[in-house]
Amino acid sequence: MTARPAQRVEMVPVDRISVLNPRVRNxxxxxxxxxxxxxxxxxxxxxxxRRAEADGPFYDLVCGQGRLExxxxxxxxxxxxxxxxxxxxxxxxxxxxxNCARRHHRSLDLLQDIGGMKQRGHTxxxxxxxxxxxxxxxxGVLRLLEKGEQRLLQAVEAGQMPISVAIEIADAxxxxxxxxxxxxxxxxxxxxxxxxxxxxxxxxxxKRGKHVLSFRTDGAAVSSASLLNAYREETDxxxxxxxxxxxxxxxxxxxxxxxxxxxxxxAMMEILESEGLRDMPQELCEHLSxxxxxxx
Length: 296
Hints:
Blueprint: E1 10-13, E2 17-18, H1 27-40, E3 46-53, E4 56-63, H2 65-73, E5 78-84, H3 88-103, H4 107-119, H5 124-131, H6 135-146, H7 150-157, H8 163-171, H9 174-186, H10 192-208, H11 224-263, H12 266-274, H13 282-289
Parallel strand pairs: 2-4, 3-5
Antiparallel strand pairs: 1-5, 3-4
């Protein structure tokens, strides 16, 4: 029997769903799933097959173990699910096909599908119900699509940036963009690596535009202007690295000479000895005087 997806999403009790072929999950990836669901809701319903029993219907999981476990971790009692009619073999095949397809499917294309549903006449509420996404998230995606913000959309789908921050950046001018990043930092929406990634994205968006350029597959040659711009950017980057290295070297030279003069001053050495500060790291001592691990 071939699996047939349901025409609408059903709310299924999480305690009635069994995982037929459980997999060990990456803790970091699982935490990202939990954070994403708690922030914007479920982006895509899980897939199950109904199993009738005496004390009510039960369900076997076809696809979506991570999302199901995240809902359980968050204390949710029901989860949006597509219910299909399939036997055990069909469930395993459907799960494999869906996982393989997802690996090769660009995340940006998935968000573009929301724009396609809007163009076909679906309301935000309809899209949210059919996809399992929150209405706020769907509305934000549509707004970014209207502005052509492909870079921001890609960051949102990758979990690098909340949809609210992406919208604030899309609506802001250049000073406002920096203010949006500051607000996101102050509100704990962007911290650490995510903040650094957001800053890099904003810089790329400023230099290269809102759209994400893909590699050409028609065999057309790259323009000389684009090659020249890429060369200049790489040259400027290397020059900056060289300047930073020279500054660091000059500072280290200054510190080294200053320490050598201090250690050559007998009065200074007596003060250090009286304070019990005669020892120093061996590598530093060897670098300064070529002697052992103690001041001489």
